[in-house]
Amino acid sequence: MKKLKIALVTLALAAVFGLVSHSSFNFSNHDHPGQADSREGGYPTPSSYKTIPEDLPE
Amino acid sequence: MYGRMRDLGTGGVNKTETIEKTLSSWQLAIIDRETSEADHLKEEIDALLSTLKHTGNIIHTKYHLLNYGYLLLKGNFKLANDILDTLSDQTNQFNQELYFLFHFFKGLHFKLEDERYVKAIEEFQKAENFTEFIKNDSIVAELYYQTGTVFYERIKNFDSFIYIQKAHEIFSKIGYTERIAGCEMLIGLNCMDMHQYEEAERRFYLALKAANKTENTSLKTLAYHDLGLLYGQQNLSKAAIRWLTEAVKLQEDYFKSSFLLFREYCKLNELEKAKEWYVKGIKRCKEVNDQDNLIRFELLYAMYMDTSQFETTFIKGIQHFYKTKLWQYVKEYSVILAQHYRDHGKVQEAIKYYDLFIEADQKIIESEALK
Asked: Among residues B102, B4, B93, which one has the least CA distance to residue B56?
């Protein structure tokens, strides 16, 4: 019975499985404050050169 | 390159004209992201302005506007926000060039401070209405480039590709090698998202070739990193590690490469080496207080290296990403946890996390939908 349940869950979510790729680290769709640069690709932009924040004059 | 005006301003040349020229050089340095050049030019312009009792309103407004862009370049968002408030009340004094700069910088502000990409694109597209009033083509190309980067972040690959191509065309005409390398990287990254791996590979090699013509170490690091990412995504871990190692040789603290090295070594089950990159990565995340990536390191660690903590680490991590509305992460990690529960016969828990996966996917679709 337990195995049947597992099989049913698996089948019901087969479509979902099809959409999943373990290596697809395409993260950022958000549009809200407070998040770090979150995609895995690298390209030149001011934030890509960020290291430890500088002490900036206030 | 930016035509600094050290030798002007005292002889026959009118001081106002000198200030205008220096402002133009400063503008170009800011938009070209040449921080040290922008620093020098700011000192010059501050000195020049302090010697003048009366300058036109337009000069002062332009100075404040460029100072806004300069603070963004330096990452000083607190002061940038203060200036933005003042500038927003002065838009009636703007000419077309200043409108362009205002919207361009405001778009960058949304992008850089807190990744509010929809707002960033709105501002960039407002700036686009004023491109005909911008004499310097590389500034217009930079707007296209930045618009393309935001579309890339939002996984709007077609739009991103179109904008980056436009930027690439202009930068190629000018022969601006550093920017050509950047465009090649972004075209390659968009190709990767669209599963055009051969073209992505070709573009990354073009990016590396262009980067190698420059002295820009960060640019080379990024090119190596992207090649590593490409091969890693194809599960060619050894090739990925080769390129990622080159990236961290040039810039050891580039944590995106550290994370990928950690992941690729995990995939190869070379856990000692993986742990080295885990230790470096979390140290770096703590230094810069990057909670999201710290959790990603911990999740990977729980998957490959300390599986006794797998469930608790994943539950906590997913809760964090749910709270911060990082739906791609919720989606990515909740399905892994669901699969784990399924494999261990814990059906109710599996259903809960599959449901969460579906909810996160729905949130992503909603965020992409036409408004």
From this structure: B93
